[in-house]
């Protein structure tokens, strides 16, 4: 998100049309952040700073100031396209929920829901309605009427696959909020939508997703019926299915892969495995097999899980590109890490080491090395992580490697009051200094790194270093973002206040 918005910021021309007065008596870092907003050309990025500042204020139990900041955001929305206006209204409404201003949040969501009617694309309208529904659930009972209106919008979506997806997702949210009856109603209404999908592979996917949701709700008999319907389509072996997936930008292989993943997650890993050879694309087949192996593992069917892993390795040994081999080994390692099996995670992570020298695409190699370094850090293998970073060529990936390793190590240590030892803190600060000293191709990349590293310095209780980095960020958007993020992590000490005062001149526009 940071990189994307920073990139948008750097390519825009001209000056912003919208101006506003920064509210008085805001906390210093938030005030400094807000004063940079007029220098940010895009109103979308301006609003993102406002929502970031509001989140920081709310997080520090300062909802009144958050409301004053959010009020400024509404004045900036009008210059955006209809789609972006809806997205920004939804984003602001989320922040009003955080600040406790439910009535204003609902008012913005009502505007957003009305604007969805202007979209003539089912995919766009469906995604935006789904986001509105998500915020309504976060509000709770006060948004019930609006939630019902948003759910009604699902039924005018002409794409049956998308309609079924949205009904199933909303049913899940109702179930999670304790509304089992409403959830069941939507599941029943998803059945005709899924059954009306013309393309057979897309229909099989929706049936398998429906079966998963029914299984989650304990309706095993009905779930089995739709497992069987999905399997019946797959048993045609593609001969009765039209070419393609029936979904723009989606291949038949992707549809089959998603179907098998839903089947596996719903407790039907055996059925899913029997159809895995229908997928011709190696990467998609491997991803589906990994999900199937995971499903077996989680249900304590360890022998079956091992057999699926053997099938994965068999595919990899058949002249698979080295990049694909490494990518899959990393995915397997991450899967075992998530399953709380660090020994197996380390085994597969170490297996990647002999492949890196064979990869000729430097960009791909650097990306995979960075991923491996992060995994080593998650497994508390700091030295191995640093050795992996040493093999990276691109300076930005090197710097990102050092900062990511520190971030993962801090996450591993947890958020206890004591934090890392003095010795470890010095080690982490040394790694962050190395990251800052890597020579980057552009000042925008340097600013992205400064934003990330400033937050890590703050987590190390090195607030003076954090604010020092913020003071030298050149990009107005990233500078404002960094200041609002640093405010969220303040501990409120007199020492922090003195540091902020000492940097005040450098933090202003």
Please write out the topology.
Elements: H1 2-11, H2 28-35, H3 43-59, H4 63-74, H5 82-98, H6 102-115, H7 122-139, H8 144-154, H9 160-176, H10 180-195, H11 200-216, H12 220-235, H13 252-265, H14 269-274, H15 282-298, H16 302-317, H17 322-338, H18 342-350, H19 362-378, H20 382-389, H21 395-413, H22 422-437, H23 443-459, H24 463-472, H25 476-488, H26 494-507
Helix pairs in contact: 2-25, 3-4, 3-5, 3-25, 4-5, 5-6, 5-7, 6-7, 7-8, 7-9, 9-10, 9-11, 10-11, 11-12, 11-13, 13-15, 15-16, 15-17, 17-18, 17-19, 19-20, 19-21, 20-21, 21-22, 21-23, 22-23, 23-24, 23-25, 24-25, 24-26
InterPro entries: TPR-like_helical_dom_sf
Task: Summarize the model shown.
With 509 residues, the chain is mainly α.
Protein architecture, described:
By secondary structure, the chain is mostly helical. Among the domains are: 1-42 and 440-456 and 463-509, no CATH class; 251-320, Serine Threonine Protein Phosphatase 5, Tetratricopeptide repeat, CATH 1.25.40. The protein is 72% helix and 0% strand. Helix 2 runs antiparallel to helix 25 (476-488) and helix 17 (322-338) runs antiparallel to helix 18. Residues 1-16 and 239-249 have low confidence and may be disordered.
Tell me about the largest β-sheet: none
Treating each run of at least 4 consecutive H or I residues as one helix, how many helices?
A: 26
Instruction: Name the structural class.
Output: mainly alpha
Mean pLDDT: 90
Could you say which overall geometry the principal axes of the C-alpha atoms support?
A: globular
InterPro entries: TPR-like_helical_dom_sf
């Amino acid at each position: 998100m940071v990189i994307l918005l920073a990139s948008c910021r750097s390519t825009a021309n001209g000056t912003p049309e919208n101006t506003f007065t920064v509210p008085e008596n805001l906390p210093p870092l938030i005030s400094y952040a807000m004063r940079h907003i007029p220098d940010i050309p895009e109103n979308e990025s301006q609003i993102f700073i406002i929502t970031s500042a509001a989140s920081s204020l709310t997080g520090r139990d300062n909802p009144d100031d958050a409301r004053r900041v959010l009020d400024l955001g509404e004045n900036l929305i009008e210059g955006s396209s209809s789609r972006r206006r809806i997205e920004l209204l939804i984003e602001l409404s989320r922040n009003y929920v955080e600040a406790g201003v439910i009535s204003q949040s609902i008012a913005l969501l009502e505007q957003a829901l009305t604007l969805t009617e202007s979209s003539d694309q089912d995919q766009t309208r469906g995604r935006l309605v789904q986001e509105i529904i998500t915020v309504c659930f976060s509000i709770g009972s006060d948004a019930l009427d609006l939630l019902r209106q948003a759910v009604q919008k699902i039924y005018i979506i002409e794409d049956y696959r998308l309609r079924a997806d949205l009904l199933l997702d909303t049913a899940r949210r109702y179930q999670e909020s304790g509304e089992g009856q409403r959830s069941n109603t939507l599941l029943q209404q998803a059945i005709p939508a899924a059954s009306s999908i013309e393309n057979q592979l897309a229909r099989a996917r929706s049936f398998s997703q429906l079966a998963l949701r029914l299984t989650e709700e304990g309706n095993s008999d009905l779930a089995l019926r739709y497992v069987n319907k999905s399997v019946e389509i797959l048993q045609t072996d593609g001969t009765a299915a039209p070419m393609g997936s029936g979904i723009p930008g989606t291949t038949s292989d992707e549809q089959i892969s998603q179907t098998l993943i839903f089947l596996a997650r719903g407790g039907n890993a055996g059925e899913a495995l029997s159809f895995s050879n229908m997928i011709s694309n190696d990467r998609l087949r491997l991803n589906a097999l990994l999900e199937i192996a995971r499903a077996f593992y989680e249900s304590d069917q360890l022998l079956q899980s091992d057999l699926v892993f053997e099938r994965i390795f068999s595919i990899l040994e058949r002249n698979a590109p080295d990049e694909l081999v490494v990518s899959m080994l990393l995915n397997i390692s991450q899967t075992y890490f998530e399953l709380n099996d660090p020994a197996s995670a380390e085994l597969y992570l170490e297996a990647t080491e002999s492949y890196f020298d064979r990869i000729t695409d430097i960009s791909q190699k650097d990306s995979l090395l960075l991923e491996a370094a992060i995994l080593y850090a998650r497994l508390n293998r700091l030295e191995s992580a640093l050795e992996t970073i040493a093999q990276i060529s691109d300076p930005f990936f090197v710097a990102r490697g050092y900062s990511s390793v520190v971030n993962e190590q801090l996450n591993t240590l947890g958020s206890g009051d004591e934090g890392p030892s003095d010795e470890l803190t010095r080690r982490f600060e040394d790694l962050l200094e190395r990251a800052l000293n890597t020579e980057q191709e552009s000042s925008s990349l340097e600013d992205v790194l400064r934003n990330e590293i400033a937050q890590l310095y703050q987590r190390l209780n090195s607030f003076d270093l954090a604010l020092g980095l913020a003071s030298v960020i050149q990009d107005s958007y990233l500078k404002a973002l960094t200041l609002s993020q640093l405010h969220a992590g303040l501990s409120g000490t007199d020492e922090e206040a003195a540091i902020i005062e000492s940097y005040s001149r450098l933090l202003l526009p």
